[in-house]
TrEMBL record:
Keywords: Hydrolase. Its EC number is 3.4.-.-. InterPro entries: Carboxypeptidase_A_C_sf, Class_I_gatase-like, LdcA_N, Peptidase_S66_N, Peptidase_S66C, S66_fam. Residues 16-131 form the LD-carboxypeptidase N-terminal domain. It comes from the Bacteria. Residues 205-333 form the LD-carboxypeptidase C-terminal domain. The lineage of its organism: Bacteria, Bacillati, Actinomycetota, Actinomycetes, Micromonosporales. Belongs to the peptidase S66 family. GO terms for molecular function: hydrolase activity. Coiled coil: none annotated. This is S66 peptidase family protein.
Amino acid sequence: MESLRYPPKPRPGDRVAVVSPSAGLPAIFPHVYELGLRRLREEFGLEPVEFPTTRVMGADPRDRARDLTAAFADPTITAVLATVGGDDLITVTPHLDDAVLRANPKPYFGYSDNTNLLNHLHRLGIVAYHGGSVLVHLGRPGTPHPLTLDSLRAALFTPGWYDLIPAPEWGDQPNDWRDPATLAAEPVMFPGTGWRWQGPARVVRGRTWGGNLEILHWLLATDRIGAVADHAGEVLLIETSEELPSATEVYRILRDLGERGLLGGFPAVLVGRAKAWDFDRPHTMEQRRAYADEQRAAVIRALNEYRPDAVVVFDVDFGHTDPQLIIPYGGEIVVDAVGRRISVRY
């Protein structure tokens, strides 16, 4: 792996690429997408630039890769933002022009299926950003969450250190995009529960790697994860999606990372708050708590087997729940289990 470097940051007034390297959901939910674009202009002062596949569902992976490469190559574009996730970006990354990406590093923002691209940029030595979706976060019903806005603004424009904070409220029950009327109502939120710390009281400083756990499993299967030595000493980020993987699956994926020799190399692990509700599984609060407890136990079991001295922080808001904090991917992080603080360098 090449030495990781932070790309230059955009400034208000700049042109930024808005791309759909995974699912072209702007084609299906244009009302949500247009709201996200408007907020990108009004809240951040950035001018979104669309590419041919941004509003296309089922675009050929080669065409999506061509758009991504063009976004990085364009000297007038200073950052690249994903519209949303999906499930097949793994078919896109082989078609990217890596020479162009290396020669024109830019901040890339995305999560979920975008773990494929975040990992790809990591292997090219480019720091990217886990989080920030034009549909999900900028197009959030009601108003964008203030923690998400503050974190995204800092990651976009401000170099230096940023303290993550536990969210005073959280939610995992989004409004139904199929009904445009729901954009006027705030999503259901619950009182914050703070972070849960596990492991020794020490301070870990390193670089980040990881992302959506299900996608990490695909990357393992396709041998697109760097050498064990490339990840030793990094801080692992893991979060799960609206597919609600079982605790057994979570344990088995982490076990696979352990058998690969990766899990034992992470001195600290951040675990995103577990999303435990979806439209086809509208769990009660009691069911959500049970799901999160079972997932937490699965993570602890795997770490006890492969890295029992790791510092672990659960319920950090960087995954598929609301709000979402932006975390640099391959960037620097300090996990302070003494002061119970997490700081990232944007």
